[in-house]
Amino acid sequence: MTVRLYLNGVAKTFTMHLQNGIRIPVVSNVDFSVAAGECAVLGGPSGAGKSSILKMVYGNYRCEEGQILVTVGDRIINIAGAEPRRILSLRRDTIGYVSQFLRVIPRVSAVDVVAEPLIAQGADAAQAAGKAKDLLARLNVPERLWSLPPATFSGGEQQRVNIARGFIADYALLLLDEPTASLDAANRAVVVSLVDEKKKQGVAMLGILHDLDVRERIADRIIDVTDFQVTAA
Ligand SMILES: Nc1ncnc2c1ncn2[C@@H]1O[C@H](COP(=O)(O)OP(=O)(O)OP(=O)(O)O)[C@@H](O)[C@H]1O
């Protein structure tokens, strides 16, 4: 078993600087690992700290305590102490993030929006566009939309463009932040098969999935975040 992600003694406390520096401890002693080819899902009630953990792994939230170790080839990198430039290069080459929200880029076509992460990893532009079209077709985005910028697409169409963009590149670690929220059953099934393919390729995945049906189909393990919750003294 190759460990791809290891959180070791991670803690997160928010400090509200505009409210007299009130400190809100959220999680502490977070310890778990995710192996290559495994999909682990963070469980626990609303407010338990699932998003905070995912955002620390992606480097969006600073991790003040503990280590977040990611295996990159034959090296191990600690995201908790990584410089912003290192985090950006990890996001290009090693860690992908699939959420339900598309950040629309004006005047860029759906195909180019989807292909971009793969081109950033060094792929040939024509091959990347081909793979982008395959994914858009699998996710039932109508072909007449592929050459248009997604700004005017429906919410569901934008969401599927974003999923295609999240799954196109080759990352060792993929973070799934409610990727199937508000998708219909047919497209949820497509996401399940995309996750299965990533597992076969040895990609480690860590996700938040409130959709119980999808969670049951893709989660190899549930990590209960309440185990790490900081209870008020
Ligand atoms: N940027 C922030 N500033 C201050 N507090 C925050 C911030 N982000 C999260 N929190 C607090 O941390 C706690 C955990 O939030 P988080 O979003 O991680 O929970 P969650 O388990 O993902 O919840 P949900 O299932 O509702 O999305 C909450 O009490 C929330 O108010």
TrEMBL record:
PROSITE patterns: ABC_TRANSPORTER_1 (PS00211), ABC_TRANSPORTER_2 (PS50893)
Record carries keyword Oxidoreductase: no
Name assigned to this protein: Phosphonate C-P lyase system protein PhnL
Pfam families named among the record's database cross-references: ABC_tran (PF00005)
Record-linked NCBIfam families: CP_lyasePhnL
The keyword Transcription regulation is annotated on this UniProt entry: no
Cited Gene3D superfamilies: P-loop containing nucleotide triphosphate hydrolases
Entry's family note: Belongs to the ABC transporter superfamily.
